[in-house]
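Q: I have 106 residues here and want to know how they pack in 3D. Can you give me a structure?
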Amino acid sequence: MSDGFGLAVRFTLKPGHEEAFDQLVSATVAGIRDQEPGTLVYACHTVKDRPELRMFYELYRDRAAFDVHEEQPHVRHFLAERGQHLAGVEVDFLRPFDSKGVAASR
């Protein structure tokens, strides 16, 4: 798994923007699912008792797969539209070193 490239992203939403943001995410994930074989995991989560928070975990085969992801039309649309729904965003870049559930890309 040493070749993997990941992100953990925490989105804080503006009040009343939860449904619109989630719809934007769902449309984006449909494109990721259909068009990005190098995106191994793209998991979006709500947070119990915190309706304003969304947590994403993203795992890519390698940095090149992430770069391809960033250039996709569905992702560019998400990046252009998400700001109107956000009060804040935190991104941590991850380098996986051990896992269960995702095959190593060797």
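Q: Anything worth noting?
A: The domain at 5-94 is CATH 3.30.70.100 (Alpha-Beta Plaits). The mean pLDDT is 92.
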